[in-house]
Amino acid sequence: MTRARKQKRKGLHQCSCESCRRHPHGMMAKQHRAINRVLVTLNEKNRRRFAGLLALERGRGGIQAVATVTGLSRNTIRRGCDEVRRTDRLTHVRQSGAGRKAIEKNARTF
């Protein structure tokens, strides 16, 4: 499956913060949509690092705020913060389609 098809299937996350709910066409809502448009184009590692950088810029409460805007897990964002702080450590990026196979593919048919 091509990258463009995956992006269409996943779609953009709709921010659920108070500002976006009150003013869906406001400046903050536009900024949150732009953040989510960038995240869709990034791979797993860069998505995590970008979210971590945003959380570090916001300071205290940044992880929860970025989690609300992006829909990413707080643990994922915390890991991204650690990776941004420690740039000397190499991290692994999973290949597309990597990971555990679906149960249907592992099950034997008799």
Radius of gyration: 17 Å
Tell me the fraction of residues in β-strands, as a range: under 5%
Q: How is the main sheet built?
A: none
Distance between the termini: 30 Å
From the helix content, strand content and strand pairing, which structural class follows? mainly alpha
Number of strands: 0
Topology at a glance:
Blueprint: H1 3-10, H2 18-22, H3 27-41, H4 44-58, H5 62-70, H6 74-85, H7 103-106
Mind explaining what this structure looks like?
- It is built from 7 helices and no strands.
- It has 110 residues and is mainly alpha-helical.
- It has one domain.
- 17% of the residues are buried.
- The model has no long low-confidence stretch (mean pLDDT 77).
Task: Label this structure with key terms.
110 residues, mainly alpha, 7 helices
Question: Quick summary of this structure?
Answer:
The chain has helices spanning 3-10, 18-22, 27-41, 44-58, 62-70, 74-85, 103-106. It is mostly helical.
